[in-house]
Amino acid sequence: MGPLLDPLAQSIVVGASRWRDYPAQQVLAVATAAIAARQGITRCADAECLLCRHAIDGGPVLS
Ligand SMILES: [Zn+2]
After folding, report:
1. φ, ψ (nearest 5 deg) of residue 18
2. Is position 62 within any domain?
3. Whose C-alpha in 25, 28, 34, 45 is 20 to 30 A from the C-alpha of 8?
4. Separation of 47 CA from ligand 1 center, angstroms?
5. What is the CA(18)–ligand 1 centre distance, in A?
């Protein structure tokens, strides 16, 4: 999702570190639209990851 959110970031220096500052409402709108269009966009690099699969499916199924 980084490529979608990167254009919204502003780089600022706080003390001795550089921060990336994002407008929360815009990030929420862009992220919500991206997830609605492609639910797997939040998946991590592990193709077998159960946490991501459960999250995309709406959570673990408890028996
Ligand atoms: Zn994962």
Report:
1. -100, 130
2. no
3. 45
4. 8
5. 28
